């Protein structure tokens, strides 16, 4: 199965961070949660404290197949400001490895030039941060090795797309059935 690194910073959006970790682990992928804060305890944007598997500076990333950035306003700012992470993202993107971001975090891909000439999505109102991209109003968009998600409400779609990309259509369909995922609106 695939090796996945998901990066956490104080202010991360909990649903966007933990849904991909959960669904990717359910399908047998090795997912490592990595804190960029210099400590393994990270505070989410809604007061949920989580414990990352590792800190960034003690992790080698050569074996990664997919690198995920959850959103959240403060979390995205912290991720964008952490040069070792942006340097790593440039390296792995240049090697053709998969990168994924949701909510505000696709703005980092805009800054790094990853979405130029591609289709992408981002949190509503942030479309201008997708430099050079065609911004789509869709829950999740994959173009080449870049996957972007719209926001917290798209976390399940985003996560299923990552499962599909790493494990195939049948595994994603089976997971969707097992988790009783359906699109229903209560409002």
UniProtKB/TrEMBL annotation:
Source species, domain of life: Bacteria
Domain DJ-1/PfpI as annotated: residue spans: 3-164
Pfam family of the protein (one): DJ-1_PfpI
GO cellular component, one term: cytoplasm
Coiled coil: none
PANTHER family: PARKINSON DISEASE PROTEIN 7 HOMOLOG (PTHR48094:SF12), PROTEIN/NUCLEIC ACID DEGLYCASE DJ-1-RELATED (PTHR48094)
Name of the protein described by the UniProt record: DJ-1 family protein
